[in-house]
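Supplementary material to the annual report.
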Amino acid sequence: EVQLLESGGGLVQPGGSLRLSCAASGFTFSSYAMSWVRQAPGKGLEWVSGISGSGDSTYYADSAKGRFTISRDNSKNTLYLQMNSLRAEDTALYYCAKDPIYNRAVGAGNSFDYWGQGTLVTVSS
Amino acid sequence: IVLTQSPATLSLSPGERATLSCRASQSVSSFLAWYQQKPGQAPRLLIYDAFNRATGIPARFSGSGSGTDFTLTISSLEPEDFAVYYCQQRSNWPLTFGGGTKVEI
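Predicted assembly:
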């Protein structure tokens, strides 16, 4: 059974940093691209960042470029999101999500067949 | 690529047909997915690449369209189908979602 378990959220002051983690199980983690998708309270879904299965290719929304860094440790089956220079508008529930396609070609975009339950990030003074 | 969903809210009764629209600001070929989200839950993949039902999705859900205009149809609404629906394109980076359509009773 595929499981994605996010952690690392919390309350942080504007300008602060957080590192989110997503522990994956039930599939060959290194063979699937992964993404972070967020949802502000009462709002819609916003894709934040994606990474290829090998970790060699990364992609970012404009809102995340220069502030967030996605990475993965395939030996630990874990996805990360390092978030720096946090702003009030980064307040959201952050989901990790899995690509449905095994070894998708690098550069190709993806949809998401499995999602975690999310970790809440609140940026406030 | 901006995805515009309409209507924002759809008020229907169980047993009725629901037709949801997603329009892209430029062609996304057939690289469009649909998700369902219920309160307090993560989104669930319904349709990928415009018309392919994801594993375990009932046949009453169908997707159509290509290029810039897409439709999600629920042929006969069940009580559990009342939720928010999002479209998402994977044609170009950055990946983007539509703003959602709420299907309410």
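Chain A has a mean pLDDT of 96.
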